[in-house]
Amino acid sequence: MVDWCQHTDYLRCNPLFFGSPCFDCVFIWQTQDKVILGRLLFLFECLIGDRNFPLALIHPFDAPTSQRSQKDRDLNLFRVRARQ
After folding, report:
1. Is 84 exposed, middle or buried (CB count within 10 Å of its CB: 0-12, 13-18, 19+)?
2. What secondary structure letter does DSSP report for 82?
């Protein structure tokens, strides 16, 4: 929805967020046509020379869930999981 107001979304990756772990999920572009989900584990910056590069460690949900992907009947969503 466009409302011409400025918004900020904060991504959380904290092992102890108010007493319990909180790791947000993110969309990851694998190729130009393929997007997968993943869990954000760690955010950090790497200083190389005089440039600072923001980086993220992400655990992708790219493991197969069954022989054939099926949508959830109630929510109409696909089930995903991470590799072990």
Report:
1. exposed
2. -
Specify the amino acid at residue 35.
V
The pLDDT tens digits for 13-53 are 888 888 888 899 888 888 888 888 889 999 999 999 999 99
Nearest to 13 by CA among 21, 23, 27, 3: 23
Give how far the C-alpha of residue 35 lies from the chain's centroid of Cα atoms, to the nearest Å: 11
DSSP per residue, 15-80: EEETTEEEE-EEEEESSSS-EEEEEEEEEEEEEETTEEEEEEEEEE--B--SSS--B-TTT--B--
Closest Cα to residue 40, out of 24, 22, 62?
A: 24
Q: In the block, which residue shows the tokens 């992708």?
A: 60
